[in-house]
């Protein structure tokens, strides 16, 4: 599918008329559209809620791969949270991404079942300096200070699991990463009634160019000590200050989320927000403390409601002839 070929060997229309096709057909004539598929393993693949070893893998569960804690203000829907396996399909065309998920779920029928899924659109971050910064549904540029592909040292320090991380039993994850998902509903209609200056103070950056409130252009480093008329010009409770590496032990994360709109709620408000996705080397140092702090002291939280949450370990890429997670399953 990542090469634009059908999911099965026969294809959507060439098989016997008495059998269901081995490809569902909605991607016929569509190009691969940059399709990538990322797989992850959740903590419950290793142990059930009572700590029992489900598939003989418990001895290889990395210490950091635990169900994420409850964060202040979380209003999680259990039917949109957690899971044993994660399959993420990304493509330039949602039809291609949905085709991939649908066919993988179809092939897995009887062995696995879909617990939840989320369709997103428009990325909410850049992951390369060659991309221009997109905007989230609050209308702000998102991804400015993200870790970029052109920063190999930062990727090693903050994103890829290193050979010395964890102990020998989790060596299958070396070169992989942890994937955090948070389904964050935005109270869009309330946000839209806030004055521009307040919106910018919540974020800590300007809405137009994305520059820090301390001045410069989008990529100027924020000056958190610059005084304003009432405290620092970048408020202490602004999002960028609360989550900035300078105030979080230097920890960075690779954000790679998407916007979502899942229709409207009964009051006519959009059921919309940001499907936050981040890749980190260690959730215990690079996500949980930062999320805790954000939940407690970030001014933007007033406009957010977290309705889904999950953590997965993503094994490293595979070589020709290998299958995903081979080092875990055959250790
Ligand atoms: C709906 C929820 C969220 C919105 C609307 C949002 C929005 C933004 C915006 C506009 C920026 C500034 C531009 C940039 O550098 O990308 C930013 C930066 C950032 N956000 Fe968020 N964010 C959200 C949730 C989160 C969450 C849950 C986390 C992690 C706990 C997070 C971590 C970060 C980090 C680490 C930065 C970069 C800070 C820096 O180095 O300057 N964000 N976010």
Notable traits:
331 residues, alpha+beta, 2 domains, two-stranded antiparallel ribbon, 9 helices, 18% helix, 17% strand, globular, binds protoporphyrin IX containing FE
Tell me what you see in this structure.
The protein is of the alpha+beta class and 331 residues long. The chain folds into 2 domains: 1-40 and 87-115, no CATH class; 63-81 and 117-329, no CATH class. Helix content is 18%, strand content 17%. It is built from 9 helices and 8 strands. It has helices at residues 43-46, 94-108, 152-158, 188-191, 196-203, 239-243, 283-286, 288-297, 326-329, and strands at 36-41, 85-90, 121-123, 177-186, 254-255, 258-264, 270-280, 304-314. Strands 3, 4, 5, 6, 7 and 8 form a 6-stranded antiparallel β-sheet that branches. Strands 1-2 form a two-stranded antiparallel ribbon. The two termini are 29 Å apart. The relative contact order is 0.18. The structure holds protoporphyrin IX containing FE. The site of protoporphyrin IX containing FE (HEM) has 27 residues, from strand 4, helix 6, strand 7 and helix 8.
């Amino acid at each position: 599918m990542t090469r634009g070929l059908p999911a099965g060997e026969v294809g959507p229309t060439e098989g016997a008329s008495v059998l269901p096709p081995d490809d569902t057909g909605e991607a016929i004539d569509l190009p691969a559209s940059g399709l990538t598929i990322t797989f992850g393993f959740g903590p419950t693949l290793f142990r059930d809620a009572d700590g029992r070893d489900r598939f003989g893998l418990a001895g290889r569960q990395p210490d950091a791969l635990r169900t994420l804690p409850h964060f202040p203000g979380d209003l999680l829907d259990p039917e949109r949270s957690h899971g044993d396996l994660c399959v993420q399909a990304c493509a330039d065309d949602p039809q291609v991404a949905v085709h991939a998920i649908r066919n993988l779920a179809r092939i897995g029928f009887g062995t696995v079942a879909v617990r939840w899924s989320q369709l997103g659109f428009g990325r909410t971050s850049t992951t390369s300096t060659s991309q221009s910064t997109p905007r989230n549904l609050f209308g702000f540029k998102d991804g400015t200070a993200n870790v970029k592909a052109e920063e190999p040292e930062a990727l090693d320090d903050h994103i890829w699991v290193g050979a010395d991380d964890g102990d020998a039993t989790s060596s299958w994850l070396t070169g992989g990463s942890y994937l955090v998902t948070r389904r964050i509903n935005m109270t869009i209609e309330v946000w839209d009634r806030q004055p521009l200056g307040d919106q910018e103070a919540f974020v800590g950056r300007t809405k137009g160019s994305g520059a820090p409130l301390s001045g410069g252009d989008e990529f100027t480093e924020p000056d958190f000590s610059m005084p304003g008329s009432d405290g620092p010009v970048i408020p202490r409770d602004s999002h960028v200050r609360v989550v900035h590496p300078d105030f979080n032990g230097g920890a960075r994360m690779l954000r790679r989320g998407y916007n979502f709109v899942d229709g409207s709620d009964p009051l006519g408000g959009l059921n919309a927000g940001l499907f936050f996705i981040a890749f980190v080397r260690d959730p215990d140092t690079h996500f949980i403390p930062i999320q805790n702090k954000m939940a407690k002291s970030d001014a933007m939280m007033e406009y957010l409601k977290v309705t889904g949450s999950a953590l997965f370990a993503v094994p490293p890429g595979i070589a020709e002839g290998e299958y995903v997670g081979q080092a875990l399953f055959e250790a």
